[in-house]
Amino acid sequence: MSRHGNPPIRLALYLLIGGVTMAAAAHAQQAQAGTTAPARSRPSAAARQAIAGQKGIWKWVVPPVRMKGGFDDHDPIGLVAGKLIPADCSFNWTDPDTHKLYCFTSATSLVYFLDAPQTYLAKAQKEWLALKDKASKDGKAG
Hints:
Elements: H1 7-33, H2 45-52, H3 70-73, H4 76-80, E1 91-94, E2 101-104, H5 107-113, H6 117-141
Antiparallel strand pairs: 1-2
């Protein structure tokens, strides 16, 4: 092994250190001049208002138009658990086979679903039919 180490790794380290040094110098120069971040990096008044109206980090992007998902916009993972949990479609998945859209209440629900989508869809469909049947029987009995 040479005394100077691996040349590509050394080059990468030099470039990294040089980039960090240049960024630090630019930041120090801005601080001395009393300037703030460029206007393009600050959110507009409309963006701040939109962000303020949302709940939590995951829900700040809601679809601009109403999306219609399967199971009347109820979360398939909720259905698998036997619960009707409405979703706003900010997290969604389109079945590549049927091109049908499904809506989820959270990223966690979507990621969990993506472990075995066809299995969860089959279970959700079964529960959906059972819940709809129960609701229609309850409606007739009332």
